[in-house]
Amino acid sequence: MTPGADRPSPGARVRDVEFAGAIGQPGQAPPGDLPEIAVAGRSNVGKSSLINAMVGRKRLARVSGTPGRTREVNFFRIDGRFFLVDLPGYGFARAPEAVRATWRSLMETYLQDNARLRGLVVLVDCRRGLQEADRHLLGYVAGGGLPVLFALTKVDKLNRSGRQKAVRDLQAALDLPADQVVATSARTGDGVQALVDALYGLVDDEQGGNT
Q1: Per-residue pLDDT reduced to its tens digit, 6-20
Q2: What is the pTM (predicted TM-score) of this model?
Q3: What Cα–Cα distance (Å) separates residue 32 from each residue in 18, 47, 94, 155, 210?
């Protein structure tokens, strides 16, 4: 065994992943009836980079320096067991109002009327903390009992004390337990495996632990 081989790399549990399709209008049918776990966050929060790190691929989700690039709900089939769903980034004020209205309607419909949805991962930039747009998103799922996990992104931009403060601040803002916040970095891989484990945990809980 090579040194470090017993330590899983980010995304190591994901064996097979493929783009399954997308929906761009409220009411469109998803590309299958598998359980779904959605990933959401403000524009430019690093969502595409983190998704790529989670699944161990470099270009599965398109990374762009232009906010608001993701305009559809994209479905990625993971190991034939569930869909990882990439939701459009929100909070991009410079997008035309008609476009923002379509995004809001698409996200509201998806989050509020979806029996297949098993969990939601909300990404928060560690340097900016929780924003009003994030609270609006959480309002769509409030009271529905949907498991929500928070991923602080880009923690490589902070020193150790800064990371700890960012985690504490987010926990305090929403009264969250420690295990509901994961500090992550797509660049260094920090926290990525913990996030992947959490996704599989949600699916395993539903399927009785079968793998």
Answers
A1: 334 444 578 899 999
A2: 0.85
A3: 13, 23, 33, 35, 20
